[in-house]
């Protein structure tokens, strides 16, 4: 009776190319998701620059651009009316 029992491991077929691609794709996808979550949890601090000249020149440029782009408040656009026949 003991001779009839077969305790050898079952034969497992070799994984195909697409199974390997799927396995490693899922593995790299999981790593990418972990990196993204860690980037949200642990933000990288930027070094603070003390260049006051750059800040002043940028703020004056922004003020000049905003004045040129914004239309005057006193003038309202006229509404166009359809001509009646």
Query: What profile does the largest beta sheet have?
Result: none
Number of strands: 0
Shape: elongated
Mean pLDDT over all positions: 76
Number of helices, where a helix is a run of at least 4 consecutive DSSP H or I residues: 2
Beginning-to-end CA distance, first to last residue? 108 Å
What percent of residues adopt helix (DSSP H or I)? 40-55%
Unreliable runs: none
Q: What portion of the residues fall into strands of 2 or more residues?
A: under 5%
Specify Rg, calculated over alpha carbons. Answer: 35 Å
Helix-strand pattern: HH
Give the class from helix and strand content and strand pairing. Answer: mainly alpha
Keywords: Membrane, Transmembrane, Transmembrane helix
Family: Belongs to the UPF0239 family.
Protein name: Mannosidase beta like
InterPro entries: UPF0239
Give a written overview of the molecule.
By secondary structure, this protein is mainly α. It is built from 2 helices and no strands. The protein has helices at residues 17-41, 52-69. The longest helix has 25 residues, at 17-41. It is found in: Membrane. InterPro entries: UPF0239 (IPR009621). Residues 51-64 have a biased composition (Basic and acidic residues). Residues 51-85 are annotated as: Disordered. Keywords: Membrane, Transmembrane, Transmembrane helix.
